[in-house]
Specification:
With 674 residues, the chain is of the alpha/beta class. 40% of the residues lie in helices and 11% in strands. It is built from 26 helices and 14 strands.
């Protein structure tokens, strides 16, 4: 370009000197051998099957074996590693960085069992990497796109016998579960991609995301921020070390029975992690031979088991979006708010893990304490599980738990946790009485009120206990600080002096639902508030969503969203907002009560005042909202919206389009006659 300095050597290197052409061939020897075909195959098989064999031979598979039963391994592998594991090209996150090892182990096992393994990839984004950027606008919509792409890849191997899905993180694993659920006539197994080890003497991958906010308030210095930002990952692969969306999705896969027992939260790269891939491949071969399709595993009973396990773990609220989507793909009725509430009322949280506390064990310690099957032993004793639900192990859930209770694997894992970390497994995964004594409470509450007539959600167990009253009810009344973008909100939280968010404020982030920003995740806000001394005194209300690692009085999924006319979009700075979350009854309300804190309005008066207002003038779709995401937002809205799981209900979409075309035709006809 004009004005730029020339580097003739670099320019010459870019253009090349043609040396590589001196050894370039123009023809080659074809593979030796012949296709395993007979007269009937040549006369009757589709040409695609025959050409597929040609391609198999062309890629170098042994000709005598290319007629074996095909198995498809779907993974979210990202990046490119050298033979020694060093990076050639980075992935977007550690969660998909080394699952090529799992693919290799599974493929080798399938081949040993007489199968013909195929491997395809549909990688995934990193929610942590896109926090606070416009990249987050693609995060949730990506899940639907990936699930569709994965299902298209499945159908592109027409004679596949079984599916092995290997995935780890926030959107890749939910998409993978949707893909396998939607391939309901085929046998399938999920291999959770595992978790990252914590690093000695370092901050975890949740806390390290707050170095900017803590530095801005003088809580850490530059050297500490730089060091901790570098050292958070104790291993190069796996999902984050906390019970966020990635880890919770792994737990849900196992709870649904579509992953083998004690495979969720395995430490990436460790021997037990590779062994999991081999055993999962063996399970898939057995399912194929038994003719057991995914639809036989993903039943209503499996779904109900998953809700109870989610409650016992105190999992991410993002599963409110993903579990209904998995159910929809499987042809099951999605769980309702009443179903989620019933599951949370039935059991307290039994797991002490990051980010919920109180001791904040990383996910690998939850795994070593026994993981999902250990939690299920307690749930079995409470009578909360469908023990006759089939699983991909070839046994029922009850039979799996009988095995686990007396297994060497259970004994070894728990003993090793005690020996390595000095931690009693019973302090990580507890029975209900011990959990209540430790102050663990049920997880999800779904507040309503004049600001959330269609509902909202809060992980009540993550509210700081020091701001909860003695009756276990969180109460807060304060002035609204209204923001129409996350950028403005985090700037006000980091700010000092005029315009800064202060203790007692209610941060309201509106216009960030599907139509505004693709329902972005707003962990920047909640993480900053968690690590600021006064942050526990600032609740957050939003029509966006939160990361599974978020803590505090943060209420998301507020519906209707502001851009759909929701009352949250009619709030103004200084409006008084009252929040009440009962962690005993699992009920809650969020209400606008007027503009004068000394003279709160009655519910009817406050609702009428809100209704008389226009939407806040700053609230609008983000100017950088991609057209792809706008399309996703429209399609999911026609399919039931966020409370339906942000799915694509094809029948509902077709009906909406037909009704719209008919309405437009009538309108044009009327205009023509007018």
């Amino acid at each position: 370009m004009a004005g730029e300095p020339r580097d003739d050597a670099l320019l010459d290197a870019i253009l090349g000197d043609g040396t590589a052409l001196t050894t370039t061939r123009t023809c080659g020897e074809g593979p030796a051998g012949s296709l395993p075909v007979d007269d009937a195959t040549l006369r009757q098989a589709p040409s695609g099957h025959l050409f597929g064999m040609t391609q198999n031979a062309g890629m170098g598979w042994r000709a005598s074996e290319i007629g074996r039963d095909p198995y498809l391994i779907l993974s979210t592998q990202g990046g490119l590693r050298a033979a020694d594991g060093s990076p050639v090209a980075l992935g977007l996150h550690t969660g998909h960085w080394e699952i090529d090892k799992l693919v290799r182990a599974a493929a080798e096992t399938l081949a040993e069992q007489g199968g013909l393994p195929f491997s395809v990839m549909c990688s995934d984004p990193c929610d942590g990497r896109t926090q606070g950027t416009t990249g987050m606008f693609d995060s949730l919509p990506y899940r639907n796109d990936a699930a569709m792409t994965m299902r298209r890849l499945v159908r592109s191997l027409p004679n596949r016998r079984g599916l092995l899905g290997i995935a780890t993180c926030d959107k890749g694993l939910p998409a993978m579960m949707m893909a396998l659920a939607g391939s309901r006539e085929l046998p399938g197994v999920i291999v959770p991609g595992g978790v990252t080890l914590p690093a000695r003497g370092a901050e975890d991958t949740a806390k390290v995301q707050t170095i900017g906010a803590r530095y801005a308030h003088g809580l850490i210095d530059l050297q500490h921020a730089a060091a901790m930002g570098c050292r958070a990952c104790g291993s190069p692969g796996g999902g984050c070390q906390f019970l966020g969306t990635a880890a919770t999705s792994q737990v849900i896969a196992e709870a649904l029975g579509i992953a083998l027992p004690h495979t969720a939260l395995a430490p990436s790269g460790e021997p037990v992690w590779l062994d999991m891939a081999r055993r999962s491949a063996l399970a898939l071969v057995r399912l194929v031979k038994a003719g057991t399709p995914m639809s036989a595993i993903l039943t209503r009973q499996a779904l109900e088991n998953a809700l109870v396990v989610h409650a016992a773990f105190g999992g991410s609220t993002n599963l409110m979006l993903h579990v209904p989507a998995i159910a929809h793909a499987a042809g099951l009725a999605p769980p309702t708010v009443a179903d989620w509430t019933a599951a949370n009322r039935a059991t307290p949280r039994l797991v002490d893990a990051l980010p919920n506390g109180p001791r904040h064990h990383p996910t690998v310690q939850v795994f070593m304490a026994g993981g999902v099957p250990e939690v299920m032993l307690h749930l079995r004793e409470m009578g909360l599980l469908h023990l006759d639900a089939p699983t991909v192990s070839g046994r029922t859930l009850g039979e799996n738990l009988d095995w686990w209770e007396h297994s060497a694997a259970r004994r070894i894992a728990r003993e090793r946790l005690q020996a390595l970390d000095g931690i009693d497994p019973a302090n990580v995964i507890m029975g209900p009485d011990a959990a209540r004594a430790a102050g663990l409470t049920s997880a999800l509450v779904f507040p309503v009120g004049n600001l959330a007539p269609a509902g909202s959600v809060i992980k009540a167990t993550s509210i700081d206990p020091t701001v909860v009253d003695d009756d276990n009810v969180y109460r807060h009344t304060g002035p609204a600080r209204v923001f129409a973008s996350e950028h403005e909100a985090i700037a006000a939280i980091k700010r000092k002096g005029e315009g800064a968010v202060v203790a007692g404020d209610v941060v309201v982030l509106a216009g960030c639902g599907p139509a505004g920003t693709g329902m972005e995740e707003t962990y920047q806000l909640t993480s900053a508030l968690k690590y600021l001394p006064w942050g526990k005194h600032v609740p957050v209300l939003t029509d966006a969503r939160f990361s599974g690692v978020s803590t505090g009085a943060c209420i998301g999924h507020v519906g209707p969203e502001a851009l759909a006319g929701g009352p949250i979009g009619r709030l103004r700075d200084g409006d008084q907002v009252r929040i009440e979350i009962d962690r005993n009854s699992l009920q809650g309300r969020i209400d606008f009560i007027g503009t004068d804190p000394s003279q709160p309005l009655s519910p009817d008066e406050a609702t009428a005042l809100l209704a008389s207002r226009e939407t806040h003038p700053a609230i609008a779709p983000h100017p950088k909202l991609p057209n792809d995401t706008r399309l996703w937002a429209a399609l999911q809205e026609a399919s039931g919206g966020t409370w339906g799981g942000c799915v694509y209900d094809v029948d509902a979409i077709v009906e909406t389009l037909r009704a719209g075309r008919e309405a437009l035709a009538r309108q044009r006809a009327e205009q023509g006659t007018g």
